[in-house]
């Protein structure tokens, strides 16, 4: 379903909460020229780092690449375009995309290289950068507990980027650790409701 050239939002923070099985399948199918929107590119051999190592990513929109020397090497060599975005700004741009907003106003980055080429807007005498919303063709989500309808519950720190990216993509694919009957997950524990989810990948 994921074609060459697709844009992917991928959950996880240094591969914690990353849908590893879906990432592995993308590598196996050799999907190329991808745009990846995520917190980071993990590290070699883990999470998004597998996509980087296989040279499948054309552009990465991330908050840092400090723990993946291969990302740094490809960027320096001109093989990979990297857009570095402050972490808070990145998640708010994704949230804005999920909520149908055009973008967010932030003072983060004013007076630095981050402001280059961005519109500045004054509100009550203060200057803000307009950071445009982000959306993707696919969101690749990892969840601990999923029911047959597609209601999602996350475990511990895996509840990082996953719930937000599930709202900001045209198609949501969930890598599920455990799929359970409807009613097993208490309504109070559902973080991402089923109407947002398109496909479940079962833990074989």
Overall pLDDT: 96
Q: Biggest β-sheet: count, sense, barrel?
A: 8 strands, mixed
Structural class: alpha/beta
- Residue stretches low in confidence (pLDDT < 50, at least 5 long) are none
> How much strand content do the residues show?
25-35%
Number of helices: 5
Tell the overall outline.
globular
Distance between the ends = 20 Å
In sequence order, what are the helices and strands, one letter per element?
A: EHEHEHEHEEEEEHEE
Cα-based radius of gyration, to the nearest Å: 17 Å
Provide a descriptive summary of the structure in words.
- This protein is α/β, with parallel strands linked by helices and 204 residues long.
- 20% of the residues lie in helices and 30% in strands.
- It is globular and about 55 Å long.
Structure characteristics:
204 residues; alpha/beta; eight-stranded mixed beta sheet; three-stranded antiparallel beta sheet; 5 helices
Overview in brief:
The protein is α/β, with parallel strands linked by helices and 204 residues long. The protein is built from five helices and eleven strands, in the order βαβαβαβαβββββαββ.
């Amino acid at each position: 379903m994921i074609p060459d050239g697709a844009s992917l939002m991928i959950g996880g923070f240094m591969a914690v909460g990353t849908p590893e099985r879906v990432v592995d399948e993308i590598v196996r199918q050799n999907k190329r020229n991808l745009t990846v929107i995520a917190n980071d590119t993990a590290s070699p051999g883990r999470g998004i780092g597998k996509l980087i190592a296989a040279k499948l990513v054309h552009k990465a929109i991330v908050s840092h690449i400090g723990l993946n020397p291969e990302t740094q090497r490809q960027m320096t060599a001109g093989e990979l375009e990297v857009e570095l975005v402050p972490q808070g700004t990145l998640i708010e741009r994704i949230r804005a995309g999920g909520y149908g907003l055009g973008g967010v106003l932030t003072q983060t980055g004013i007076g630095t290289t981050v402001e280059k080429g961005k519109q500045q807007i004054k509100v009550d005498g203060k200057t803000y950068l307009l950071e445009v919303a982000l959306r993707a063709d696919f969101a690749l989500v990892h969840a601990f507990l999923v029911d047959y309808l597609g209601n999602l519950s996350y475990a511990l720190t895996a509840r990082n980027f996953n719930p937000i990216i599930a709202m900001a993509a045209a198609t949501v694919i969930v890598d599920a650790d455990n799929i359970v009957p409807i009613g097993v997950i208490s309504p109070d524990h559902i973080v991402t409701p089923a109407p947002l989810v398109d496909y479940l990948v079962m833990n074989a």
